[in-house]
């Protein structure tokens, strides 16, 4: 039984009866009616998928004009209705005209049952895939809107940020590969999305892939996809992220974390602009714009032999170096006000501003965690503040972070929690704020390390 509702419209009772008898054996629901004037009511009452529409209604008419009129009317209600026209007169001209106006197919009366069934079951398939595409388009639009809301826009009026925005606007519309460098939390992802938003691909997908979180095993299946049976759990064919980003932008974050063998695999995809799903020999062409980011010093890594020079040359057609927050002057206050607004909305608060001492502290502090840290500090302050202004105390900034040498020494009776905090602090200092490296030294994932930084208020 085909899961579709067919509406048959014809002024001849015999036709309606034989259509009903035949079609109800195969289709979930069959609705019939004698006059196209009932179309509006019928379409609003039933979830109709296919409409089988006669071309002539008035006695003696055979030019099919009425049919064309009602066809247009139906498609003006919803262009995705699948309409099959029928007529007793074999008129090729009319068929062509009907198809041009959006009919899906045409059938001659008297019909052969097999032919009618074949036409309608093909129509049901078409309707089904139209519905699927519609659903996916809606999902895509809502994801895009959601994404745009999440990233909003780049906040910053300082000279370095203005310059970067100028470069961004120049290179975004080209298809050049862009490498974004900068410490953790400087806004690499925000810039990557901004590039996408100003590119020719802005209506396509923006696919973010955190390479740092992919294990060696998952890398290929996740990025390039796999064929059914390629490995035990491969129950069906699955496209990889490159294919899913078709026509859009793929943002490969933490590219400095890739091992040399994986760098070679990625290079070959970028060079050939094709992917091979695991377990499949076929090469699939890809059309994606590549944006990459890392907080690691890729040039130094090339010198040390831990990053391939040819891969670096492929990805860095244009390089954007995001400055640490402490080098952005009064952007700190702009960003702080921006986050104050965001969290006022989120927590239904109405805090007006920062008092002058709090502002001075925000400007003085050196922000090792950059914009992300500022965001967390303001969120916490919005939650904790009782008054209408955020004070120095509300910011709860750790004075140890002002100097470099204030780290505590290990004491014999140090509590476990303090010990953990000290280890985390030292690892971050040792790697100059490079979270990925500190995390790998501590044997933690980046997310786990971020949780500890939050927990210990570092
Ligand atoms: N210029 C900016 N304007 C507004 N928000 C920003 C800006 N820069 C960063 N943010 C916000 O700060 C947070 C951290 O930014 P983002 O994730 O882009 O940093 P990142 O450099 O990609 O970090 P990581 O290296 O840890 O992945 C995000 O919530 C982002 O929305």
TrEMBL record:
Chain ranges of the Sigma-54 factor interaction domain: 154-383
Domain named Response regulatory: residues: 5-124
GO biological process: phosphorelay signal transduction system; regulation of DNA-templated transcription
Superkingdom of origin: Bacteria
Pfam families: AAA_lid_14, HTH_8, Response_reg, Sigma54_activat
Keywords assigned by UniProt, alphabetized: Activator, ATP-binding, DNA-binding, Nucleotide-binding, Phosphoprotein, Transcription, Transcription regulation
Positions bearing 4-aspartylphosphate: 54
Family matches, as InterPro entries: AAA+_ATPase, AAA_lid_NorR, CheY-like_superfamily, Homeodomain-like_sf, HTH_Fis, P-loop_NTPase, Sig_transdc_resp-reg_receiver, Sigma_54_int
One Gene Ontology term of the molecular function aspect: sequence-specific DNA binding
Protein name: Sigma-54-dependent Fis family transcriptional regulator
Organism annotation: Pedobacter quisquiliarum
């Amino acid at each position: 039984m085909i899961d579709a509702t067919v509406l048959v419209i014809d002024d001849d009772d015999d036709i309606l009866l034989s259509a009903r008898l035949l079609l109800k054996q195969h289709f979930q629901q069959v609705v019939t009616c004698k006059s196209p004037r009932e179309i509006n009511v019928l379409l609003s009452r039933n979830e109709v998928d296919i409409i089988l529409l006669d071309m002539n209604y008035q006695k003696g008419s055979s030019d099919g004009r009425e049919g064309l009129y009602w066809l247009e009317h139906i498609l003006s209600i919803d262009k995705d209705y699948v309409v099959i026209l029928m007529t007793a007169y074999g008129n090729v001209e009319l068929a062509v005209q009907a198809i041009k106006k959006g009919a899906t197919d045409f059938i001659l009366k008297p019909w052969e049952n097999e032919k009618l069934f074949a036409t309608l079951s093909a129509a049901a398939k078409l309707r089904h895939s139209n519905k699927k595409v519609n659903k996916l388009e809606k999902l895509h639009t809502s994801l895009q809107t959601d994404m745009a809301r999440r990233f909003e826009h780049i906040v910053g009026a300082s000279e370095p940020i203005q310059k970067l925005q100028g470069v961004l606007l120049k290179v975004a519309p080209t298809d050049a590969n862009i490498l974004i460098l900068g410490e953790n939390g400087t806004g690499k992802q925000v810039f990557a999305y901004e590039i996408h938003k100003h590119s020719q691909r802005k209506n396509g997908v923006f696919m973010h892939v955190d390479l740092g979180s992919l294990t060696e095993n998952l890398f290929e299946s996740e990025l390039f996809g796999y064929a059914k049976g390629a490995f035990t759990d491969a129950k069906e064919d699955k496209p990889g992220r490159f294919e899913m980003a078709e026509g859009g932008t793929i943002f490969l974050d933490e590219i400095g974390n890739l091992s040399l063998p994986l760098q070679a695999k990625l290079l070959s995809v970028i060079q050939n602009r094709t992917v091979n799903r695991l377990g499949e020999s076929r090469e699939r062409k890809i059309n994606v714009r590549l944006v990459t980011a890392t907080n690691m010093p890729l040039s130094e890594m090339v010198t040390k032999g831990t990053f391939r020079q040819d891969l670096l040359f492929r990805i860095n057609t244009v390089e954007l170096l995001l400055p640490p927050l402490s080098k952005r002057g009064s952007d700190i206050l702009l960003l702080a006000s921006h986050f104050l607004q965001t969290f006022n909305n989120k927590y239904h608060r109405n805090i007006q501003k920062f008092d002058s001492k709090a502002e001075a502290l925000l400007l003085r502090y050196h922000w090792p965690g950059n914009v992300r840290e500022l965001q967390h500090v303001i969120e916490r302050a919005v939650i904790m503040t009782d008054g209408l202004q955020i004070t120095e105390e509300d910011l709860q900034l750790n004075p140890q972070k002002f100097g470099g040498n204030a780290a505590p020494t290990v004491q014999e009776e140090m509590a476990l929690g303090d010990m953990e905090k000290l280890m985390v602090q030292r690892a971050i200092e040792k790697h100059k704020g490079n979270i990925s490296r500190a995390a790998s030294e501590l044997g933690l994932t980046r997310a786990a390390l971020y949780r500890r930084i939050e927990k210990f208020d570092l």
